[in-house]
Design brief:
9-stranded mixed β-sheet; globular; 14 helices; single chain; alpha/beta
Length: 398
């Protein structure tokens, strides 16, 4: 069904309530029963929407997802609610009171902006997507703050708004994920020009964007949530040339200081794994300085140090063994230590963690837990064996 209207009728809403939480294994039986009293197309649409709502819980939470309306692409491409809320709060703190949300999708960012008290013009050219955004604004009681317009974003006058937010499409049905910023829809160059015409702007881009592709007028921010890198944002009207990594929940923000690459040193007692946003932002040097540490290899983003220090920007592990890569030696060590749970991490190694886990610990028998890092130390394939370090008071500056 390419029209949400039937689901917004009393009959459609009642069906959505009826099929809420339907398990995939029960769909056929539920559909057969409901089609005795309702049009088959409407029943299929309700069940499809129920599936999308279940998928959307991870991004929007159960309460909002259970009331919202989704398209398959909308669920896939929407910003996680926690990230959208952080960005909306940052815009609010800049004094922004109105935003033109271009390429708004189903309205995830518009919802966060409206909840921050910001008036939003949400623009998308796809009729079904715009209909979903309009339905979501109404379902969440935000219709007074969100004006949804079905239009080509390149033809929208944003002059009356304090800020512009652009979330270009970075996927296509034929090519899948798009990595070239100029292949975004609309292209990054167009989005930058739109940003430069506004007092403030935020452009959402893929976290893998090359640093050399960041415009000189922009601040670049990489954002992770729960340790997973979610996106990068190019900010205009803030600090041109600044680079930062922001970790959610928190937020905790590390601002770049232009430090040179850390030096390489022998593996110490502790190994620090920087957060992915820190690595993407090229701020490992800032973390290494904070920890009084160095790199284990000039090409590997692991920091090592002799002392354990608290930092929100890296996870600390206490290293007990350093071995050349050798599965038999690792297997013997794990057996000797009575290891029952093995976590394998890798950086700079071609070996797949699951493959090593299967070979090194085929029959877990012990109760101890070990973490093995497959990496390089001074250019040599190496296994570092250890475990998460104990907590340290004092998490460092935000």
């Amino acid at each position: 069904m390419n029209d949400l209207a039937p689901l917004l009728t009393p009959e459609g809403r009642a069906l959505l309530d009826t099929v809420r939480g339907t398990a995939p294994a029960d769909e056929l039986a539920v559909a057969t029963r409901l089609r005795r009293e309702h049009p088959a197309e409407l029943v299929s649409a309700a069940l499809g929407q129920a599936r999308l709502r279940q998928r959307a819980v991870a991004k929007f939470g159960a309460e909002d997802a259970g009331r919202m309306f989704f398209t398959p692409n909308g669920v896939e491409q929407s910003t996680r609610a926690s990230v959208a809320a952080y960005r909306a709060e940052r815009l609010r703190a800049l004094g922004v009171r109105s935003v033109a949300d271009l390429c708004s999708g189903i309205g995830g960012d518009a919802i966060a902006l409206a909840r921050a008290g910001i008036r939003v013009l949400a623009v998308d050219r796809d009729p079904l997507t715009a209909a979903a955004a309009r339905a979501n604004a109404d379902a969440l009681g935000l219709a007074d703050l969100i004006d949804v317009r079905e239009a080509d974003v390149t033809e929208v006058d944003t002059g009356a708004y304090d800020a512009v937010f652009v979330d270009p499409a970075r996927r296509s049905t034929k090519r899948g994920r798009i990595f070239d910023p100029e292949a975004y829809s609309p292209p990054l160059s167009w989005a930058v020009q739109a940003a430069l015409r506004a007092p403030h702007a935020a452009l959402k881009v893929a976290p893998g964007i090359p640093h050399e592709a960041v415009p000189a007028q922009a601040e670049a921010e990489w954002i992770s949530d729960g340790g997973d890198v979610k996106e990068a944002v190019l900010w205009f009207g803030t600090g041109p040339g600044e680079v930062r990594a922001t970790l959610l929940p928190g937020p905790r923000t590390l601002l770049g200081r232009g430090l040179p690459d850390p030096g390489v040193r022998p593996v110490g007692r502790y190994l620090y794994e920087p957060d992915g946003a820190v690595i993407r932002a090229h701020l490992v040097a800032e973390v290494a300085e904070e920890l009084d540490g160095g790199l284990i290899d000039p090409t590997i983003a692991y920091v090592t140090a002799d002392a354990l220090r608290g930092t929100p920007y890296a996870t600390a592990y206490e290293i007990t063994d350093q071995l050349p890569f050798n599965v038999k030696k690792l297997k013997a060590l794990l057996r000797e230590r009575e290891v029952g749970v093995l976590t394998v991490k890798k950086r700079g190694s071609a070996v797949e963690p699951e493959e090593l886990r299967r070979k090194a610990l085929p029959k877990p028998q012990g109760t101890n837990t070990v973490t093995v890092f497959l990496t390089r130390v001074a250019g040599a394939p190496t296994m570092l064996v250890g475990a998460p370090a104990r907590a340290v008071t004092g998490a460092g500056p935000s």
